[in-house]
Sequence to fold (116 residues):
Amino acid sequence: MELGTHSTSLAVKDIKASKAFYEKLGFKKLEGLGSVEEKWLIMINGDVKIGLFEGMFENNIITFNPENARANYKTLKKTDVTFLMESASLKEEKGPCHFSISDPDGNQILFDQHTD
Fold:
């Protein structure tokens, strides 16, 4: 199963404070991917990406960005994995799509395909 790039999506209480903190660690905002006003953004430091999300979910999430999330979805549907969310766009042949699963400890794992 091809997982693509990896990032951690952090549920934050104050996106401005979180952005300022991660900037101290050398992270920079990735242009075109969210904003403080939208209450979500993606930051990068070298090969490390984190997403900051205020008020969008309760817990931190492991995020994978595969090139073909639909193939991963079809593979996982044949198993006993617990699905937490399945986007309607998974039924389409092309375009962005996403789904999330839960590991045995309840940790959420998001598969988020951004392109065709």
